[in-house]
Design brief:
- It is a single chain.
- By secondary structure, the protein is mainly α.
- Helix content is about 70%, strand content about 0%.
- It has one domain.
Length: about 50
């Protein structure tokens, strides 16, 4: 789980610094990666919105 979180943080940093992506969009993509990587299914996660 810590490895997935670390990769998620790295994705956010790379998207902001290297790809010059807006921070909110980069955080959203990173959060989606961590959520899917930790086993949360997309069918169950739409109830959180």
């Amino acid at each position: 789980m810590l490895v997935i979180a670390a990769i998620g943080i790295a994705i956010v940093v790379l998207l902001i610094v290297w790809a010059k992506l807006h921070a909110v969009l980069a955080l959203t993509i990173g959060a989606l990666f961590v959520g899917i990587g930790s086993g949360i299914s997309l069918e169950k996660s739409h109830h959180l919105l």
